[in-house]
Amino acid sequence: MNKGLEKLLFNPVRLKILSFLFSIENASFKKLIEVSEATKGNISVQIKKLEDAGLIKVRKKFEGNYPLTLCKITSKGKTSFKIFLNSLQSFGVNKSADIEF
User: Fold this and answer.
1) Helices 12-22 and 40-52 meet at what angle, rounded to 10?
2) 73: closest CA among 21, 4, 36?
3) Do residues 47 and 15 make contact, with C-beta atoms less than 8 angstroms apart?
4) What's the 3-state SS for 4-29?
5) What is the edge-to-edge ordering of all strands in the sheet holding 66-73?
6) Residue 85 parent element (H or E)
7) Cβ atoms of 20 and 30 closer than 8 Å
8) Which of 12, 30, 35, 80 is packed most tightly, with the most Cβ within 10 A?
């Protein structure tokens, strides 16, 4: 596996973000804070790193007068997440759980 990808995804907050986005169409910044249990500042940094790596796409818009940030996993992100999980399984991490895509 690519060492840069491995380093990127071993961060628990980034891994939680990707794993959540993997199963849904998109999520708001607020929902990702809830799911990851991270602070606003930390989640912002982690989202930026995932976006810079091309693993997620971030879209900012206004809903009414309020800003809304939506995040969506990219096809590269889905592929990278699958590779990462398969790599963990090959090392014996959680072999009892069958992960299917």
Assistant:
1) 70
2) 21
3) no
4) HHHHHHCCHHHHHHHHHHHCCCCEEH
5) 27-28, 66-73, 56-63
6) helix 75-90
7) no
8) 80
Sign of CA dihedral 38, 48, 86, 10: negative
Residue indicated by tokens 């007068």 = 65
- DSSP calls for 29-51: HHHHHHHHT--HHHHHHHHHHHH
**Do 71 and 15 form a contact (C-beta atoms < 8 A)?**
no
Provide the token pair at 73. Answer: 């996993």
Amino acid (1-letter code) at residue 80 = S
The whole-model pTM stands at 0.82
C-alpha distance across the termini of the chain, in Å: 18
